[in-house]
Structure formats: structure tokens, C-alpha cells
Amino acid sequence: MLPASEVDAVVINEGRQHAERMLLNNGGDLGLLGSSKAYQQVWARDSMVCGLGLLLCANGEGRGVHRRSLETLRRFQSPLGKLPHNVGIANVVDPALIAHGGTLGSSSDVIVDTAHAGCVDNNLWYIIGHYFNYAVTGDKDFLTSSWESLERALLWLRYQDSNECGLLEVHEAMDWADLFANRYNVLYDNVLYYAAWKYMGLLASVLGKDANFYSINAVDVQRKINTVLWVGSESAKDWARISEERKEWVYTLKRIDTELVERPFYLPYVAFRDYADRFDTLGNLLAILFGVATQQQANKILDYIQGCGLNEPFPVQSLYPVLQSGDRDWRDYYRVRNLNQPHHYHNGGSWPFIGGFYVAALVQAGRQQEAAFQLGKLARMNYNEARGGWEFNEWHHGLSGRPMGYAGQSWSTAMYIVAQDAVERGCVAILGEKEG
Question: What is the pTM of this model?
């Protein structure tokens, strides 16, 4: 592990070179694989998140890899518009698939995995990943060829709004936290839903199509996220409007206002007459980066991360406070493969890819000095001398900071690239609004 005193610009830039090399090496015929050590499939959410890093690689080397990921996902889109969770080659030995016999299957074909087939963020990131691609390449022909698929992806998402309230209703464990009890109106998914609507509007404009439908829905989702999931004066409740639009929300939101009064962060989910009072780091960071949060809200969120020490020892722990056995949202399946014990994995583990989003959010919020400091810590996190140097592990123990996942993780490398690039530029590339 690198001492803090040695994390200077040279080391940080060296980390980017290693990250780019490792990320590009994780590319394959089908697109970007989740890791060189495990998850050797094209994962919809992972590959699209990694598009942020791939499209920043030197000399445009990552563009072809990202495009292959998009093409593979489109090839295996269902008739109803659902994108696959992951697509891989059969008979590839993969330690992450131990529960499934160590491989995706016994045939010689490309296989669509069905272990978590209903995850809604596959479709969300697929739309966002197409925006990334256009924002960097300006490839209007590819966008044109993808438009029908994008419309079907969005339509499938709209059907996940089962009560037509304007927000997604998400089943338990049906997004990136696929072994965790977030559910119903989930922050993470609905922030991405806002981004998907917004980017569909921008892409529609590029193609000369009417963007109003998409833009109006984006504004509506943003407003409702702040109505349902933020507690405090920064988003005061319009009770007359709530009663008129969604009577089912009144009981739950009045209960939340009475019991919590205020919080310096978005709640992770609000369900039917139920809610969770804890800090979901990724969902809140994405709210900053995609523009759901105001500057005032962003400052509260980032101050809370600092105040609670969630950026210690490394940026950044995924959950606070962690869930313990006996808590209302504890599930026995958290013990599967020892993954979601307290301070592990989704239950408060530290993820380098979330650390990359954290650094980017600091830059977005105008906290350049703190972003540069946290980037140095992220470099230390990704470097493991005992294991041969730049490792870019999947996740680390939330308290000890020691690596506990698989090395060579694509989104750990990709989001390091994004973080380094954001600090160097003083802005977050790609997330700006690019129209034709």
C-alpha cells in the first residue's frame, strides 16, 4: 500500500496508465468483461458505467470496446425491451459463478445469464451508455440504428412504474445491490431514471425528433424524487399537490416528516407505508452528478460523508449505518458466500468504483481541493504492493480497507480514470449536455 506522502501527481498519473491498460485488456469479442479474474461476461450495468472510462482512454482506444458492449446488449434485448443482465461465453471457468457450477453453461454458445434477470438498472445504464457514446464520438449513424432499441428499453422501464406514479417501483435486490433489501421507490434507480429521460430527450433532439415528451418526464421524475426521498426544507412538501396527485404517498410522507424532521441526504427507498433511514452512498452521489440534487443538497450530502468518516480509510463506504442481524431490513441471504456481513460488499463495504464517483461528485460540487486529496487516497486503495502493485480490486472491507473482492475489476479501473480526469480538467467530462 502506498504511504500517503508518496501519493503525488506522478503516482496518480501512473495509476491512470495502469488503469487504462487493464481496462482495455478486459475487452473481448462481445465487449467489456467485468474483470480479468472473474465476472468474465459483458455485464449490462458494469459495461455501461465503464463506458465513462473507456471513452476517456488515450487515442480513442476504448471506443470500439464500448460500442461492442452496446451491440451485444442490443443483440440480446428481449421482445419486450428488457436488456440482459449479462452475456458471456459458455465453458469459461469463472470463480464468481461457483454457485452455478463455475461456468455459465455447458454448451458452446453465447449465453444470457438469468441469475438476476429482472434488474432494472440494466435498461437504465443502457440508455445512459448510448448517451456517453454519442457525447464523445458524435456518431449519429450508430445512434440512428439504436433508436428503436432505446425506445423499447425505455418503454420496458415505464412498465416498471406499476402504479403510474412517475417513479419506478423496484423489487427487492433488483439493481446493482443485487443482494440487498432496497425496494419500491429506490433512490439509485430513480436517479438513473431521471438521467435516462433527460438523455433520451437530448438524443431525440440530435435525430430531429420531438424531445418535449422526454424532457417533461425528466422534470417530473426529478421533482418526485425530491418530494418522496428528500426530508427537509430544501425540498418543502406541497401537500395539496401530493394529495391531488398521489394520495397513497400522504400517509408515508407525513410519517417520515414527523419521525425524521430532516436528513442531510436522500433516503435509500420509500415503500408502501414504509421507508429506510440510512445513507446510500452511490445513490446520493449519482443524484449530485446527474443534477437531481441542488448545490445546497449536494453540500449537505458531501458534508455528511466527511462528517461520518465514510471516506476513511478509503473512498468510500457504500452504506451508513450498516445493517446488523436482527435489524428490520436484515435478510438471511446476506450471509450467502459471506458477502453482506456488516462492512462487507453492499452492506458498508468500500468500493473503488464508488470512490471514483465520489471524487467526480466533489469536482462537480466545486470542491476541487478535497477531490484532489481523495483521488490520492483512491490511488492508495487501488495499489497493493503485497499483491504486485496496481490491483484495482472489486471491493474492500469498510473499516480495515483491505481488499476482499476480485482483482482487475473493470469498473474499479474505469472510475479511477474518470476521477483522475475530473480532477485534472476541473470538470466531469461526458456528463455535460451535448446536443446535435
Answer: 0.95
